[in-house]
Amino acid sequence: MATLASPLAASPEGSALPNFESEAYKDAYSRINAIVIEGEQEAHDNYVAIGTLLPDQAEELTRLARMELKHMKGFTACAANLGVTADMPFAQDFFAPLRNNFQAALAEGKVVTCLLIQAILIEAFAISAYHIYIPVADPFARKITEGVVKDEYTHLNYGQEWLKANLDSIREEFEQANRDNLPLVRTMLDQVAADAAVLHMDKEDLMADFLSSYQEALLEIGFTGREIARFAAAALVG
Ligand code: PL3
Ligand code: FE2
Ligand code: FE2
């Protein structure tokens, strides 16, 4: 089980609070917040979709999906609180490559790929982002994000446990799906880095926290350290 590990220590410049009222902050927030809202909405849709591939799990997956809608509402309130309008078209483009891969896997009934994309990669990405955001968030958003990050561990654990229970039969599909999708997460991180910096979120902290959740999840599934290193290398080679 992934634990509620404390986020990696923020860098000194990262720990200073930004000026939440500045135009620069609000401009960056309009995209980052939209990414989070879109991510939560797509996470909802993805869990419902996975339920169609795993009918005996549909009830549990519906419960997870509902949590995502609650997250979405929370982050929508964060933008309203700052007087920011989320740039949703930007966020829809941001998720397009990963969404397309998820939809293709869904159409082929590839549940391992769907779970890797949603319950491992997207959840680990969200957990790292929320960890790094919490110390530099405005007080209203901090409270909401702290509640959300606990739920995201439930989602990561769900994917982890299913994959663990099926380890013997998933290896090949998992490796290919990882090769196809981990580089996309890397690109997404690169794309969000400049706006995240305006929010005082450090790119290397984000990357380190992501890799830590990813590695912990894969160890829990039952992959060896050597296998995980090979999987992670896929993001470097691209
Ligand atoms: C799944 O439960 C959620 C998927 C959301 C994806 C989040 C991506 C985060 C990008 C960087 C955001 C920093 C956090 C700011 C919060 C307003
Ligand atoms: Fe969520
Ligand atoms: Fe989630």
Rg over alpha carbons:
17 Å
CATH level-four homologous superfamily name: Ferritin, core subunit, four-helix bundle
Bound molecules: hexadecan-1-ol, fe (ii) ion
CATH topology: Ferritin
Major sheet summary line:
none
The parts where pLDDT drops under 50 for at least 5 residues are 1-14
Number of domains: 1
Number of strands: 0
Termini Cα gap: 29 Å
Which CATH first-tier class would you pick? Mainly Alpha
List SSEs in N-to-C order: HHHHHHHHH
Residue share in helix? over 70%
Report on this structure.
With 238 residues, the chain is mostly helical. It has a single domain, classed as Ferritin. Helix content is 82%, strand content 0%. Helix 2 runs antiparallel to helix 5 and helix 4 packs antiparallel against helix 7. The N terminus is likely disordered. The structure holds hexadecan-1-ol and fe (ii) ion (2 copies). The site of one fe (ii) ion has 7 residues, from helix 2, helix 3 and helix 6.
List the helices and strands and how they pair.
Blueprint lengths: L11 H4 L7 H31 L4 H25 L5 H20 L3 H23 L5 H27 L1 H32 L4 H19 L3 H13 L1
Helix pairs in contact: 2-3, 2-4, 2-5, 2-7, 3-6, 4-5, 4-7, 5-6, 5-7, 5-8, 6-8, 7-8, 7-9
The protein binds hexadecan-1-ol and fe (ii) ion (FE2) (2 copies).
